[in-house]
Design goal:
The protein is of the alpha/beta class. The chain has six helices and nine strands. It has helices at about 10-20, 30-40, 55-65, 75-85, 125, 155-165; strands spanning about 45-50, 70-75, 95, 110-115, 130-140, 150, 155, 170-175, 180-185. Helix 1 (about 10-20) runs antiparallel to helix 4 and helix 2 packs parallel to helix 3 (about 55-65). Bound molecules: S-adenosylmethionine (SAM). S-adenosylmethionine binds near residues 50, 51, 55 and 74.
């Protein structure tokens, strides 16, 4: 049996930054590998709303093709600073210490990685930030086999909207028994 693939070096460095900051709110490796895989299909500009310490950014960075770039915004200045240092020598990644709304003017993007828990990531707000054929990834759902999907005993309208909006073709993917992501492609 072959060994599990190593973590990309840039992801290891992002974990070091997280450890130093005592920060644990990063995407899990299963999601990261999906991000890297999707990033490898993209051209132009990719974006992330909510950088944290840069773990998700690092996974995207590990997958992108030559000539592509990543913009990522983090509103917590301390976290943004750590991620800026991580990518200081990397001309293909720009970390902004800012609300994600500052990235609205720089799109459309070929891939958008969103933290599903952030306010304002509803389909109507995001749809025009993604180019045709562009991919939106929303992280951090608890898998639910029911329809409409429930979270904490209520209908999860965010998930429901992303999976039914006519502008997107979407799917919920279980990346682990207790974690799913939504991947939605702009028609
Ligand atoms: C789950 S963490 C991000 C994890 C990161 N994407 C990763 O995969 O490692 C969510 C981050 O979003 C940031 N955030 C929340 N609302 C934001 C906003 N409106 N603009 C920018 N960042 C935001 C929080 O400060 C937090 O660091």
């Amino acid at each position: 049996m072959s060994a599990r693939p190593d973590l990309p070096e840039v992801v290891e460095r992002a974990f070091d930054v997280s450890r130093q900051a005592g920060y644990v709110s990063f995407c899990r490796n299963e999601t990261g590998r999906l991000l890297a895989t999707l990033a490898a299909t993209r051209e132009g500009y990719l974006a992330e709303f909510g950088t944290g310490c840069g773990v998700g950014t690092a996974w995207l960075r590990s997958g992108i093709r030559p000539g592509t770039h990543i913009l990522t915004a983090e509103r917590d200045p301390g976290l943004a600073e750590g991620a800026q240092e991580l990518f200081a020598d990397d001309p293909r990644v720009e970390v902004l210490a800012a609300d994600w709304s500052t990235l609205r003017d720089k799109g459309p993007y070929s891939l958008l990685f969103l933290d599903g828990e952030s306010p304002g990531v509803e389909v109507d707000t995001i749809a025009d930030l993604v180019e045709p054929g562009g991919i939106v990834v929303l992280d951090n759902f608890t898998p639910c086999s029911q329809w409409p999907p429930l979270t904490l005993g209520r209908v999860d309208t965010l998930r429901e909207h992303w999976l039914t909006d006519e502008r997107f073709v979407g799917v919920e993917i279980m990346v682990a028994p207790d974690s799913s992501v939504i991947v939605a492609t702009r028609r």
